[in-house]
Amino acid sequence: MKGNSMKRLVIVIIALSLMAGMAIGAASSKKPKCPLEAKGKAACCPMDKCIVPKEKTVLWNGKDFSGWKLYITDKDKDPKDTYSIKDGVIQVAGLPGGYMRTEADYCNYLLHVEWRWPGSGGNSGVLTHMSGPDKMYPKSFECQLASGHAGDIWLIGSGEKLNPLIGIKTAEHAAGGPRVDGRRIKKLHDSSEKPLGQWNTYEVICKDDWMLIFANGVLQNVATGMSDRCGKICLQSEGTPIEFRNVYIEQLK
Predict the structure, then answer these.
(1) 137: which of 44, 114, 124, 155 lies 20 to 30 Å off by Cα?
(2) What are phi and psi of 143, to 5 degrees?
(3) Residue 232: which residues within 8 A CB-CB, separation 6 or more?
(4) What is the DSSP letter of 231?
(5) Residue among 68, 69, 94 at smallest CA distance from 81
């Protein structure tokens, strides 16, 4: 088995072990449903319509933006001036703010994303389980990429304003404690990021109502009891130039 495949297998085994050891409530054999469905309301991402990868699935093909929607807040500007491609790398200008998102919804996957700061560090993020209308901060769970804070989780609700939070939660955030600061759930360890200019790797595991974030192989955060279990995946433009490459998802075995 090749080194990378072995590493991912170990990550998945660790993740599943953590899930088993930290499980909240009794396990159910029924297919989980979105909370909105349980209340008889139209769900943004019905579980039976999301894609569960059965093998490695390349989300970004390294050549163009097929399968992605480019969104920026300034409607008078061309999104392609914010998102461009050079030598197999996505170059994000940082302004105007926005994100590139998958056109499809996904659930139960291991997401692999590599990023680096070409200049000074700054702010960006990877959004999981995004749903609802396109706007600067759409309903989602943000896996933070801000320099020095990769591994933090920020909750982004469905309201017109970021606070108060509406329609999104995790068990950890609801419980409070020293790691909870407003909408933010702080990472578990000191920064595991590489020096500016070097490539970093996120491995984000989403399984049912769980999410684990590994930054350069270090488990930096765990979310359980998540209100949303599926949705689109986004890469943010949030004020600072940033680059992405090797964006794909894999089956959880």
Answers:
(1) 114
(2) -90, 105
(3) 45, 101, 102, 103, 104, 105, 106, 127, 129, 130, 131
(4) B
(5) 94
Q: How many domains does the chain have?
A: 1
- Between CA 27 and CA 40 the distance in angstroms is 23
What is the pTM assigned to this prediction? Answer: 0.85
pLDDT in tens, 66-93: 999 999 999 999 999 999 999 999 999 9
Beta strands in 68-108, from DSSP E residues, in sequence order? 68-72, 83-86, 89-92, 98-102
Q: 27-51 in b/e burial notation, b at 16+ Cβ within 10 A?
A: eeeeeeebbbeeeeeebbbebeebe
Q: What is the pLDDT of residues 103-143, one digit of tens each?
A: 999 999 999 999 999 999 999 999 999 999 999 999 999 99
In eight-state DSSP terms, residue 193 is P
SS3 245: strand
| CA angle, residues 224, 228, 230, in degrees to nearest 5 | 110
In a domain, 39, yes or no: no
- Classified as helix, coil or strand, 93 is coil
Enter the DSSP assignment of 195. Answer: P
135 falls within a domain: yes
Please give the torsion angle defined by the CA atoms of residues 233, 67, 111 and 142, in that order, rounded to the nearest 10 degrees. Answer: -20
Q: For residues 70 and 193, what is the distance between their CA atoms, to the nearest angstrom?
A: 27
Tell me, yes or no, whether 40 lies in a domain. no
